[in-house]
């Protein structure tokens, strides 16, 4: 599967609620971004790219690129990933989901149907488009939305043929986003 996928970790957010760069926060002796990288590696090898302008990530040894267009949020990050990608399918994960496991991500890959442009996971009534697989062909839709200054990720997804997978209960805690100091404290 290594050559079928590229994985992108979006770490370009401003982390305003957290107060510091979420990807560099520590959890069990490793950064958030390292946890996600290690969950992806058995599936995609080292075909993993971190998207951020923060040079502090360079010390971790990961491949890093910057957004093609600044300040476009997740829509801009996904656009950058899909423009950069050489593979048809691409894992897109937000750096604020450090609890994801290889098992959950392998399940996502195994259940993704190639006929869909995008497959996301869902727990309860909350879909997670930043724990997802995107077809590289989606970049046109992302480019159009950015050109029209429409930066709501859910609106872009409405324009894509997409699939939503309900996460099995045993992995449901892995999908949570850690965005505030309170949420960070809870997982430590």
How would you describe this structure to a colleague?
This protein is an alpha/beta fold and 188 residues long. The chain has a single domain, classed as Spore Coat Polysaccharide Biosynthesis Protein SpsA, Chain A. Helices cover 30% and strands 23% of the residues. It is built from six helices and nine strands; from the N terminus they run βββαββαβαββααβα. The strands form two sheets. The protein has a seven-stranded mixed beta sheet, with helices on both faces. It has a two-stranded antiparallel ribbon with strand order 2-3. Helix 1 crosses helix 3 and helix 2 packs across helix 4 (139-147). The longest helix is centred in the N-terminal third of the chain and has 13 residues, at 32-44. Residues 7-160 form the MobA-like NTP transferase domain.
Element layout with pairings:
Layout: E1 5-10, E2 26-27, E3 30-31, H1 32-44, E4 48-51, E5 63-65, H2 73-84, E6 89-94, H3 102-111, E7 118-123, E8 126-135, H4 139-147, H5 153-158, E9 162-166, H6 181-187
Parallel strand pairs: 1-4, 1-6, 4-5, 7-9
Antiparallel strand pairs: 2-3, 6-8, 7-8
